[in-house]
Design a protein that fits this description.
This protein is an alpha+beta fold and 264 residues long. It has a 5-stranded antiparallel β-sheet with strand order 3-4-5-6-7. Helices cover 52% and strands 24% of the residues. 14% of the residues are buried. The radius of gyration is 40 Å and the shape is rod-shaped. α4 packs antiparallel against α7 and α5 runs antiparallel to α6. The protein folds into 2 domains: 136 residues, no CATH class; 123 residues.
Amino acid sequence: MQHTTVSIWKSGLAIAVCVTLAACGDSSVSIVKDIYVDQAKTTTVSQLLDKRSVCENISWSSFEDEKGRTIVEYQCKFLGGSDFLSTERENFINVSTKEFEKMIEFRSKMVERFEEELASVPKYDAEISRHEKELELAEENFRKVDPKEFGQAQNEIKRLKDEIALNKANKWTALSLGKDALDRERDSLDRAIKNSEPSLIKSEAERRYPIYSYVDEKIQWVVNKEGGAVFFAGAITAYRPEGEVVTQLKYNDLSLIFNAIEKS
């Protein structure tokens, strides 16, 4: 019986394993499938990879790369992998909807506040008019007041002038700054209402967390002429309907993937 030493690189260490070619033939795929993944030689690559419940379809192939090397490739098309981002997409929709609800509530209150501020302009006009009449009367009476009461009369005149100045300032604020602020808040409220449309939120969610045609995992080994096989590369890739290919994960440590598969 012929034995060939096969080297698998795991975490930077070469682990030698024996593959019995008489039992599995001399094909490159068979060589890789019959590699033991543990030192106790209880589980082969085929036993570990060919019965994964997460795979809708499993295939093996071999080809020659641009350097003339024989590459053996394992492919697992994930079951339901086309929409593996569905949870993230739903979370985005729910969170965005709530955020827009809060934003609309806040902007509505701000609009109401500035509308009330502008509505207070007639009140300021009334206060200004009332204080101006009181000031006119106070200044007229000042000429008749007893000299002993000059101080009190002057204080009253100063108070009325201060009240007039304050109401004029409040009126100016309401008319100028209040109007600009109200326009800004109304614009912000309109944008929030528009952007909160469920169709727009869903569209943005699908852009960020798309639905793919399928998602697969490919693991490759290089097999030399003597029958030695070495892990080469691994990747999980998603494929968009329009042809875009998105690499989700690349790895160069096969032991980590094997450990994860064994625990799943």
